[in-house]
């Protein structure tokens, strides 16, 4: 048996290589380190949902407070994803990745120690800032590590598989932790994992930067944050303040003005945060809407079902997680099947099959009662999960469809941002729809009140299906071709003044 020093020496020899020429073992280790980040960020998208009823009882949280517990995290990630990616390209991917790990672990520790709901929401923001620096930067590190396109595709496939695994593990891990140790452990468990990833990153991940990093766009970043934060706050707090109150109307107006200003401003930048010319491509625009609708449905469904299973059906967090398992497992298992189907037939079959299943699964929940048969609930989650499994892979494929190679990364980043926006809006809109009936008392009245929420989730599924049809037509592909030509050859665009 090897002694500890000999094991360390052996590991060092396995991963050591000449500068610029990492060995296969070191590349695998780098991918594994990057996968840790997607596992943590992905788990925190679903694991916290299972803990919501316990947080509600422990911190005396209102329904809107529970919404903010989810939305604060996803909203920050949505607004900072692209900034984190461009910053990493400029000052160093490893450096930003390490900062993200530190912030994520600090935020997780503070969440675990939060004495009040307000503190928990504030610390979720810290967690979200760290999370925004992990996944997009990890993808950049992987792309930079693997020069061979086939090896790179395999590495990205592993990374995507771990993303699906994190979604599947979230309900079970969260339920087990809440049942055995309490809700605070769904945050505390992140700390040792993040610290281990931090140490491994310092040892084995090489520093890298983009040859021509994109310029930072502070004005565009502020406008994105203002638009998303304003509309989210208005939707979540609209019931308590009054939908026609000056505060809520002002927030909706601020969101609209910021969105319009962003579109106008970005047109005049040489390197915009969001290139609005992309939206002339119907597949790209469709993919953005599909991502928002799909993750709006998933976010809203998880929010509704975890509260229903624990506060109405009186299930333990772990058993509630078991009810969600068919949804998560189908999402994980069908993603690679959908990927192969896309390679053979394009995105359309996956989008249509997923849209039908997502809509049908959502509709099955619209009539649930306090005594609905367990097999029915499991079947509904199974159908919903089939839809999610088929839809998630073609979102990025559709977004980059027809885009020039040098623009594909930016297009994929916008698609990822749309996923987080959808998750945020799904929780906000569904919660707002049921807040008038539920108010502070989440219990038996929640079942009937949740029906309108499930119809909204069904509407998200139907919207996804319609956009899946529209974005995969011949006309749509033609708009993508024209957009790509314009991006490659438009002399006016290349000469546009820098902001």
Describe this structure in words.
This protein is an all-alpha fold and 499 residues long. The protein has 3 domains: 23-210, Up-down Bundle (Growth Hormone, Chain: A), CATH 1.20.1250; 218-268; 275-499, Growth Hormone, Chain: A, CATH 1.20.1250.20. Helices cover 81% and strands 0% of the residues. It is built from 19 helices and no strands. The longest helix is centred in the first third of the chain and has 36 residues, at 24-59.
Into how many domains do the coordinates divide? Answer: 3
β-sheet strand percentage: under 5%
- Unreliable runs: 1-5, 10-19, 491-499
Structural class: mainly alpha
Tally of DSSP β-strands: 0
Main β-sheet: number of strands, strand sense, barrel status? none
Broad CATH class of the largest domain: Mainly Alpha
> Helical content, roughly?
over 70%
How many helices does DSSP assign? 19
Mean pLDDT: 83
CATH-defined architecture of the largest domain: Up-down Bundle
CATH superfamily of the largest domain: MFS general substrate transporter like domains
Shape: globular
């Amino acid at each position: 048996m090897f002694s500890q020093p000999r094991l360390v020496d052996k590991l060092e020899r396995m991963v050591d290589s000449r500068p610029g020429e990492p060995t296969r073992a070191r590349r695998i280790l780098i991918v594994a380190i990057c996968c840790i980040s997607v596992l943590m960020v992905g788990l925190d998208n679903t694991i916290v949902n299972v803990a919501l009823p316990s947080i509600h009882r422990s911190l005396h949280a209102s329904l809107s407070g529970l919404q903010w517990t989810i939305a604060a995290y996803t909203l920050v990630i949505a607004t900072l994803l692209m900034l984190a990616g461009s910053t990493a390209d400029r000052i160093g991917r490893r450096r930003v990745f390490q900062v993200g790990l530190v912030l994520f672990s600090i935020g997780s520790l503070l969440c675990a120690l939060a004495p009040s709901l307000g503190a928990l929401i504030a610390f979720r923001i810290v967690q979200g800032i760290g999370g925004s620096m992990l996944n997009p930067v990890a993808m950049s590190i992987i792309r930079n590590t693997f020069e061979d396109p086939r090896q790179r595709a395999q590495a990205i496939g592993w990374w995507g598989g771990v993303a699906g695994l994190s979604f599947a593990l979230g309900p079970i891990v969260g339920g087990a932790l809440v049942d055995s140790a309490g809700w605070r452990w769904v945050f505390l468990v992140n700390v040792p994992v993040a610290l281990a990833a931090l140490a491994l990153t310092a040892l084995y991940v090489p520093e890298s930067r983009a040859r021509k990093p994109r310029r930072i766009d502070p004005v565009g970043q502020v406008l994105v944050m203002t638009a998303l934060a304003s509309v989210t706050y208005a939707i979540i707090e609209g019931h308590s303040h009054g939908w026609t109150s000056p505060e809520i109307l002002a927030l909706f107006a601020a969101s609209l003005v910021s969105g319009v200003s962003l579109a106008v401003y970005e047109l005049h930048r040489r390197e915009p945060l969001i290139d609005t010319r992309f939206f002339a491509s119907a597949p790209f625009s469709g993919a953005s809407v599909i991502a928002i609708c799909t993750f709006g449905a998933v976010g809203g469904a998880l929010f509704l079902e975890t509260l229903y299973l624990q506060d109405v059906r009186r299930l333990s967090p772990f058993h509630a997680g078991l009810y969600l398992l068919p949804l998560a497992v189908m999402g994980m298992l069908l993603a690679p099947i959908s990927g192969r189907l896309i390679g053979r037939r394009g995105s359309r079959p996956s989008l249509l099959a997923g849209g039908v299943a997502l809509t049908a699964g959502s509709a099955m929940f619209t009539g649930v009662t306090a005594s609905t048969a367990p097999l029915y609930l499991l079947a509904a989650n199974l159908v919903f999960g089939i839809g999610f499994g088929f839809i998630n892979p073609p979102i990025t494929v559709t977004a980059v469809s027809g885009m020039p190679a040098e623009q594909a990364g930016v297009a994929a980043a916008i698609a990822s941002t749309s996923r987080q926006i959808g998750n945020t809006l799904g929780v906000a809109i569904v919660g707002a729809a049921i807040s008038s009936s539920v108010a502070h008392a989440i219990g038996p009245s929640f079942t009937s009140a949740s029906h309108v929420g499930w119809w909204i989730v069904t509407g998200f599924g139907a919207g996804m299906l319609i956009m899946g049809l529209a974005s995969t037509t011949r006309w749509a592909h033609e708009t993508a071709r024209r957009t790509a030509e314009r991006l490659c050859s438009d002399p006016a665009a290349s000469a546009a003044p820098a902001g």
